[in-house]
Amino acid sequence: MAVLSVDSTRSKANVFEEVGKYLQAEGFRIAAQDFERPWGGFFVIDESQIREFQRKFFPEITLSEEQFVQKLSPKFLVVAPEARLSWQYHHRRAELWNLLAGKSSISRSENDQEGPVVEMEQGKVVSLRQGERHRLIGTDSWGVVAEIWMHTDSAYPSDESDIVRLQDDYSRT
Question: pTM for the whole thing?
């Protein structure tokens, strides 16, 4: 089994290389990647490997056959030290997050006002409901978070256009 190790002394290029090698060593095919996000970036895993992805990174979560048939967009989010994703929510999806390496925090709320910042625990799944406001936050280290999207409308699955940004450090809309 490969080991994923990230810390604040590593460069962005080095961290992304390490995460890419880890995914490949674990047998996952990278369908897409984006290292240009101001907060870090992500790796999208081949959708045909969702069962393996769920077993490896979300073993305590049970997905139905109906859910496995839907697009679940398995990915790794890689958040830089002291960086923040936007304060956001989604109309057409819930999300599952699992901190796998490094450190990250999360803020969440039922309304537009940001909730308290809480440190994520490695191996403890965070379940975000459809419409729940949330933000992934980098702390003093790189953080690597496995993610699965739980689409709430199979006829109109969520995509990147389903991000409602309430606040963004990088002036994105």
Answer: 0.94
